[in-house]
Design a protein that fits this description.
Blueprint lengths: L9 E2 L13 H13 L6 E4 L4 H11 L5 H9 L3 E3 L4 E3 L2 H6 L13 E7 L4 E6 L5 E5 L2 E5 L2 H13 L6 H13 L1
Antiparallel strand pairs: 1-2, 2-3, 3-4, 4-5, 5-6, 6-7, 7-8
Length: 179
């Protein structure tokens, strides 16, 4: 990141309003619930949301069209940090700074860097050709349909059996039924 980096303004999770119409509503609602009730186990930092105009400005400057889901995410929070899975989704300013990054594995695919999962050494990318979310660990890729699926995967893998919570158990049961 640049030497002039200014950390984004944080959003208070106690006052965060997750739009019910978003694809990630259930996952984010659960993560906010867990962060509020189990702060020693789940830390979630949300950043101040962006306006449509700010997102439009990013798209115009970069000539990149975000998916509707990503637009909704950035209107809810300009990135986030989740201690579970060490998942960090960057602010749009950080995403823009990473546009010229050359990846070490020499891949020439049309990717947009979105963040990382530090504990696993993976980066989170948007494949601009397919609009799929990709996690990449030095060339080894996993594909997810969207951010919602990535969040769901992280909830099931990193929280299953870790916390006794009725809402978590209900969510995990729904995830099992979907498979």
């Amino acid at each position: 990141m640049s030497d002039n980096y200014i950390p984004p303004e944080r959003q208070d999770i106690n006052n965060a309003v997750i739009p019910e119409s978003t694809e990630f509503y259930e996952e984010m609602k659960l993560l906010v619930h867990l962060a509020k009730n189990y702060p020693d186990d789940v830390e979630l930092q949300l950043f101040a949301p962006l306006s449509d105009e700010e997102i439009d400005g990013f798209e115009k400057r970069t000539n990149i069209k975000l998916t509707d889901e990503l637009r909704d995410l950035y209107k809810f929070t300009n990135g986030f940090s989740l201690s579970v899975a060490n998942l960090d989704i960057c602010t749009l300013d950080q995403v823009e700074e990473m546009l010229d990054t050359e990846w070490e594995w020499g891949d020439t695919k049309n990717y947009l860097y979105l963040g990382d999962m530090i504990g696993d050494g993976e980066i989170v990318l948007l494949d601009l050709d397919t609009n799929k979310i990709i996690t990449n660990d030095h060339g080894d890729e996993d594909e997810y349909d969207d951010i919602t699926t990535l969040l769901g995967y992280n909830i099931t893998v990193f929280l299953d059996g870790e916390i006794e919570d009725e809402e978590l158990e209900e969510y995990l049961g729904e995830w099992d039924d979907a498979e």
